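Changelog note: in this version the structure field was regenerated for every chain. One regenerated record is shown below for reference.
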Amino acid sequence: MEQSESINELTSALAKAQSEIRNPSKNTKNNFFKNEYADLTSVLGCIRPVASANGLSFIQSVEAYNGNVAVSSQISHVSGQWVKQVASVELPKSSKNPIQDLGSMATYLKRYQAQSMWAICGDEDTDAQDLGIEDISDEKVAHLDAMLDATKSSKEAFLKVYGVENLKSLTDSQYEKAKKQLQQKKAKQAAQ
């Protein structure tokens, strides 16, 4: 792994982001192994809102050279600090469709690098209860529901921003952040 000269601000933001991020939903079935896993869209979908909210970005690039495919993944902070990881794998010499194989291998590498760099899991059965992460209380759900109604906020958009399927799935830190944002929105609306 490579990194910028200093990463103190990045690691602080990343620690906060990792306290908020949830494992992606397993949304794809592997017919060969008969298991479910989170595809690249699901993995990136759980990363983007939390990264953005904490001043972080995630960039991935793909290169093909000398019969290999390489993926470079980088987490950057608004301060300019960054960490980067590169992985490569040899393309099969007996490939019948080299472009298809290149795309498949690139997607596989991107998915695994994203999970590795953000410390999330989309392949094993490690849901939040098994990790000891509690969902928010019913009272907090009711409070957010009322605040969403009072501010005429789209519940669907709200859930998408936080990368959850329902309000109950929010973590306590996400709840506190959402509550603060909705209170600010309500105050702004009242001032108009």
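Spot check on this record: The helical segments are 8-20, 40-53, 98-118, 128-131, 138-150, 155-162, 172-191. The first helix runs from residue 8 to 20.
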